[in-house]
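User: Batch of two.

Assistant: Item 1 of 2:
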Amino acid sequence: MVIEKYVHLAMLGLVWVFLLSGCSGYGKLRPHAREGMRVGVEELKENWSDYIIHYAEGYGGKPAAIMFDPKEGNKTLVCKKWIKVDDKETLLELLEWIQQSVRYTPRLWRILGPDDEFYGYMLSTRDHVVMKVIGDNTMYVYDLDPPHSGGP
């Protein structure tokens, strides 16, 4: 009976170790507090050529998120279905659409790795995006799920 108790405790401990180590490779979004930080939406707009920019479509084909991956630095964001932005005019249109969103309020986020390493910025109407580190300095940003329509 005593041995069974210790076996169960050991198994529970192993499950916790696997859960904690499995979650350690995921990225996270943290609110970007403008105060005391030098980058805001206006600075991203002005210095757009310093970033590799992608956006994800949301409800009605409008942008749900815009991702800014700094060209300088050793961290890289990669994605599959996100659409690359190659010119300032397109970026300005996207920013106008997302900032005038009636249904969802966009927020500027910092994209961080598991150990709080900085990867980039995201302006998004979502507060959760799944991201996973896939190499020493590379994080994969998964496609956004379509928003729920409110029906079953």
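Item 2 of 2:
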Amino acid sequence: MDGVKNQTLHNDAKGRIIEFTFAPGAELKAHSSPLPASAYVARGVAIFQMGDAEAERLAGGRFMEIPPGAVHSVRADASGEMVLVLTIWK
């Protein structure tokens, strides 16, 4: 995860909240999780792709739900740092 830092903000029996900070252009390659999640772009611009759908640009303040098992990827726009807050529901 070059250019991507993360820290757990909260973790309990109901879920986990993780803050990711992406350097410009940094990415998390396609992956999936068996648990549902939601992603909030706190700052910057995220390029988010789920499955075979066209990639979507999400500016700060946007929210995305990620169903269990959905293959998805995310990267920061090359123009600046991006902060994403991910909630994983248990």
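Residues 32 and 70 are 6 Å apart (CA to CA).
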